[in-house]
């Protein structure tokens, strides 16, 4: 038993040291009236609301052939040539630029992240995101629960102004994405906030994309970890760039990137030299674990699909089971093969983000659809 305790301690100690592979997001509850409730337990002000975290390794890769150690990876419909033809890459028009919250969200890179992340998950699509729809779908008021005694003044209710001239809603784009997803700018143009979000401007039905997803933050990751994000989520926001893959040329490695052009409010394609000596900070769009059917699907289809809170527990139980099986005496007759032979084939400068989003209320990031099946022919690797 002492041996088992020591083994378990080592396992959990190693697991605790792997902090760089975590993704962080805020998980609030919004009702049908648009009121978002955030849990302030343990917080001292609105800027340090407790975050949820999940390991990126608990998400499956697009397919089993992909690895962060391979020489190159990019999706064939998101190579340098295709990046420039994406509607997300097209410049904002003057009316969209004049809607200040839209131009600011474009500057922050979130406009590009949403558009390219959806493209990475649904290769046949080509949409520019409607940010005005997301703002309209987001919270109109924020309240707090579990506020510590004496801190009531720091956690007063806040009304969120939804307009072109207010930046209040930026902190809650992730909440909007989770509850109502996003739609295309053809449905809701980005030049003005709509009066409603139930029907497109032309009266057509709203097609909601990435519902039950979050915008999640990663911190101080090595280039290898960023590659691991790419083969799971497809698009990664770092500073003014959206990475969608990597390639090797002349013994150097490059990020396949959509690079934001600040004066033109558009994206161009570029290869950016990978610096293995810095740590990366940025954002990805991840599937919500709350929308999984969790434990049952995890057991049926593999531990990588489990809810994170069960993952470590079941991992420990597995180690315990293996240990107990190892300690059991093996009957002598069981060593001899019984029955016909079975034939089988084997299967195969610490960097801080200068453009990181500063959030007065929520440390930024706040939908579940299964990542479409891929095969090895959708990629270059």
Summarize the structure.
The chain has 381 residues and is an alpha+beta fold. Helix content is 26%, strand content 19%.
Proportion of strand residues:
15-25%
Number of strands: 14
For the record, give the distance between the C-alpha atoms at the N and C termini, rounded to a whole number. Answer: 46 Å
Shape call: globular
Radius of gyration computed on alpha carbons: 23 Å
Mean pLDDT: 81
Structural class: alpha+beta
Determine the fraction of residues in helical runs and give it as a percent range. 25-40%
Region (Disordered): 346-371
Signal peptide: 1-16
Keywords: Membrane, Signal, Transmembrane, Transmembrane helix
Biased composition (Polar residues): 346-358
Sum up the structure in keywords:
single chain; 381 residues; alpha+beta; 6-stranded antiparallel sheet; 4-stranded antiparallel sheet; 10 helices; disordered N terminus; transmembrane; signal; membrane; transmembrane helix
Describe the structure.
α6 crosses α7. The chain has one domain. The strands form 3 sheets. Strands 5, 9, 10, 11, 12 and 14 form a 6-stranded antiparallel sheet that branches. The chain contains 10 helices and 14 strands. It is α+β, with helices and mostly antiparallel strands and 381 residues long. The protein has helices spanning 2-17, 80-83, 94-98, 100-108, 110-121, 131-137, 173-180, 223-233, 294-301, 308-327, and strands at residues 22-25, 29-30, 35-39, 52-55, 73-75, 141-145, 158-159, 213-221, 236-238, 241-249, 252-261, 266-273, 280-287, 379-380.
């Amino acid at each position: 038993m002492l041996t088992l305790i020591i083994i378990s301690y080592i396992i959990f100690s190693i697991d605790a040291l792997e902090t760089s592979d975590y993704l962080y997001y805020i998980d609030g509850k919004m009702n049908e009236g648009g009121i978002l409730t955030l849990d302030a337990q343990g917080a001292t002000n609105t800027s340090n609301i407790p975050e949820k975290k999940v390991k990126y390794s608990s998400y499956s890769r697009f397919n089993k052939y992909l690895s962060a150690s391979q020489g190159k990876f990019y999706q064939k419909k998101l190579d340098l040539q295709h990046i420039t033809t994406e509607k997300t890459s097209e410049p904002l028009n003057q009316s969209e630029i004049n809607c200040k919250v839209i131009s600011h969200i474009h500057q922050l890179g979130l406009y590009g992240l949403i558009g390219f992340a959806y493209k990475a998950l649904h290769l046949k699509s080509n949409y520019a995101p409607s940010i005005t729809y997301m703002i309209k779908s987001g919270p109109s008021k924020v309240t707090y629960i579990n506020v510590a005694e004496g801190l009531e003044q720091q956690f007063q209710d806040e009304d969120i102004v939804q307009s072109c001239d207010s930046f209040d809603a930026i902190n809650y784009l992730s909440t909007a994405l989770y509850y109502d997803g996003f739609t295309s700018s053809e449905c809701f143009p980005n030049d003005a906030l709509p009066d409603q979000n139930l029907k497109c401007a032309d009266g057509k039905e709203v097609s909601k994309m990435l519902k039950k997803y979050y915008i999640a933050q990663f911190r101080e990751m090595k280039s290898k970890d960023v590659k691991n994000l790419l083969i799971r989520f497809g698009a990664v926001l770092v500073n003014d760039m959206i990475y969608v893959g990597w390639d090797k040329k002349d013994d150097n490695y490059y990020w396949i990137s959509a690079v934001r052009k600040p004066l033109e409010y558009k994206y161009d394609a570029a290869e950016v030299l990978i610096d293995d000596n810095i740590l990366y900070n940025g954002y990805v769009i991840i599937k919500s674990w709350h929308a999984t059917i969790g434990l049952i699907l995890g057991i049926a289809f593999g531990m990588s699909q489990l809810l994170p809170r069960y993952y470590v527990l079941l991992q420990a139980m597995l180690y315990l089971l293996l240990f107990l099986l190892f300690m059991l005496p093996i009957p002598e007759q069981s060593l001899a093969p019984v029955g016909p032979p079975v034939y089988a084939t084997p299967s195969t400068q610490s960097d801080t983000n200068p453009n990181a989003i500063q959030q007065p209320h929520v440390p930024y990031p706040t939908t579940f659809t299964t990542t479409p099946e891929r095969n090895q022919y959708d990629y270059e690797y």
